[in-house]
Amino acid sequence: MEVFSYIISLGASVMMPILFTIIGVCIGLKFGKALKSGLYVGVGFVGLGIVTALLTNNFGDPLTRISEIYNLQLGVFDMGWPAAAAVAYNTAVGALIIPICLGVNFLMLITKTTRTVNIDLWNYWHFAFIGAVAYFVMDESLVWGYFAAIICYIITLVMADMTADGFQKYYDNLDGISIPQPFCQSFVPFALLINKLLDMIPGFSKLDIDAEGLKRKFGVLGEPLVLGVIVGMIIGIAAQMDVKKILFLGVTMGAVMELIPRITKLFIDGLMPISEKTKEVVNKKFNGKKVNIGMSPALVIGHPTTLVVSLLLIPIAILLAVVLPGNQFLPLASLAGMFYLFPMVLPITKGNVVKTFIVGLVALAIGLYFVTDMAPDFTKAAASVYAATGDAAAKIPEGFEGGALDFASSLLGWVIYKLTCYIKYVGPAVLVVITIAMMILNRRNIIRDEKAAAEALAENKKQD
Predict the structure, then answer these.
(1) pTM to 2 decimals?
(2) Nearest 5°: phi and psi at 116?
(3) How far is CA 402 from CA 71, 74, 243, in A?
(4) Residue-range domain boundaries for the chain
(5) Cβ 338 vs Cβ 318: under 8 Å
C-alpha cells in the first residue's frame, strides 16, 4: 500500500512516464523509445495542467465576482477534480485500486468478458473515488468500498468494448483503441437517447453542422480560437472588469482553445508506440484475436466539435446552476474539465455541433443534481482525508459542502453510489445482476466476432 500510495502521490505528470516506461520495456520496446513515449505522456499531462491552470487561475476571480454581483448563493463549493482525486487515492481503497483492477481486467480477458486492456492507469482514480465515497458512507468498510469500485470498473470495461467500434470509426488513426474512462462512458446513454429523439424531429437533419461546417457558415467567427476570445470577453464583461482585463480574459480563453489540440498530439505521440507494441504482444498471447488498448480520453479532447461545444457550455453551466430549482452546486473550478464530457458523445452524434450541444446541456443539467445529492457524503470523505493527510486539495471552506463536476456528476457514478450506499441489499444485488448481464452479453458478442473472424480466415485460406 505504501509503495502504490507513494507512486500515486507523484501526480500524473511524473507517475505516468514512470509507469509507461516500465510497461514499454516489459512489452519489448527499447528503453530509449519506452522512455521517450513515457516522457511525451508526462509532458502532455504537464501541458493539460498548464491549460487547466490558465482557466482556473484567470477565470476563478471573474466567475466568483459574477456569483457575488448577481448574488448566486449556492451551498456546495466546487472543489474541482484535484479534490476528487485526493479523496480517491488518499484512502485504503485508493491505495490498492491499480493492482486490484488490473487483476480484474486480467480475469475478464481470460474469461472473454472484455477485450480491453486498460492501461489508462492515472484515471483509475475515478474507480477509487466512487469506492472511497462508499467506504466512508458505509462506516469505513473496505468490502463495500471495493465492491463499488470493482462494479464501476467492470461496467466501464464492458462499455468501452461496446463503444470501441464507433469510436475507432469516428476518430482517425486510433484503430485498436478504446476509452475505459467511466466519466466519458457515463454520457453514452444520454447521447444515444437524445440523438434518437432528435432524429425523429422533422427537418432537424438540416441542422447537421459539424465544426468544419461552423467555420464555413460563420467564417472566422466559427473558429474555436475566435469563439474562445469572444466567450472570454463576455465573462469579463459580466464580471464588470475593466477593458484591459476583459481583453486579457478573451485572449486567455482563445489560447486554451488553441493549445488543447496541440497538447493532445503529445499524448498521441507518446501513447501510440506503447499501444502498437501492446497490441502486437497481446495478439501473440491471444492468437491474433481482437484486443483493444484502453487509453485516456485526453487523446481526443482537442477535436474541434468538443472545443466549440465545451466553450459554449461554460457560461451556460453557470446559468443552469442558478436557475435550476433545488440545485446547490455552482461549477467554477470544474469547468476546466468540461472537455471530457464529449469524447464518447461525438461518435454517436457524428460531430454534429447542435446535437452534441443538446446532449451536453441535458447531461450537465442532470449532473448538477447528482453533485448536489452526493455533496454531504463527498464532504464527509474529503474532511476525513484532510484530517488524516493534510492534503490542501481536500480542504473545504468553512460553511460549505464540497462537490466536483468530475465523475460526481456522472450517471454511472451516481447510480452506483446510491444503490450501494442507500438501498441496502437490494441495491447491491441489482448492481450485481446488471453487471453480470452486461458481462454475459459482452462475452456473447466477443465469441460471435471471434467465430466470424475465424470463418472469414478459413474462407480466405480456402480461396488461396
Answers:
(1) 0.85
(2) -105, 130
(3) 19, 11, 34
(4) 68-209+268-457
(5) no
CA distance 41 to 270: 5
User: What are 332-367's pLDDT values in tens digits?
Assistant: 778 777 888 999 999 999 989 889 999 999 999 999
How confident is the model over 272-310, as pLDDT tens digits? 887 778 777 777 776 667 888 898 898 888 888 888 898
Q: Which residues contact 355 (CB under 8 A, 6 or more apart)?
A: 194, 195, 198, 349
Question: What backbone phi and psi angles, to 5 degrees, belong to 90?
Answer: -95, 35
At 419-462, the pLDDT tens digits run: 999 998 899 999 999 999 999 999 999 999 888 877 777 777 77
Give the list of residues 6+ apart from residue 191 with CB closer than 8 angstroms, or none. 344, 345, 348, 349, 359
Cell numbers of 276, please?
A: 502498437
Q: Is the dihedral of CA 347, 368, 194, 354 positive or negative?
A: negative
pLDDT tens digits, one per residue of 389-429: 777 777 887 778 888 888 888 999 999 999 999 998 899 99
Is residue 248 left, alpha or beta, with left meaning phi > 0 and alpha meaning psi from -120 to 50? alpha
Q: Which helix (H) or strand (E) holds 77?
A: strand 76-78
Task: Count how many Cα atoms sit within 13 Å of the Cα of residue 441 in the half-sphere of its side chain.
Answer: 13
Nearest to 163 by CA among 343, 354, 366, 288: 343
Q: The dihedral of CA 333, 137, 85, 182: what is its sign?
A: negative
Nearest alpha-carbon partner for 85 in 41, 28, 44, 132: 132
Phi and psi, residue 172, nearest 5°: -75, 150
d(CA 432, CA 118): 21
Return the ∠ at Cα 300 (arms to 184 and 330), rounded to 5°: 50
* Separation of first and last alpha carbons in the chain: 56
What number is the average pLDDT over the span 256-277?
81
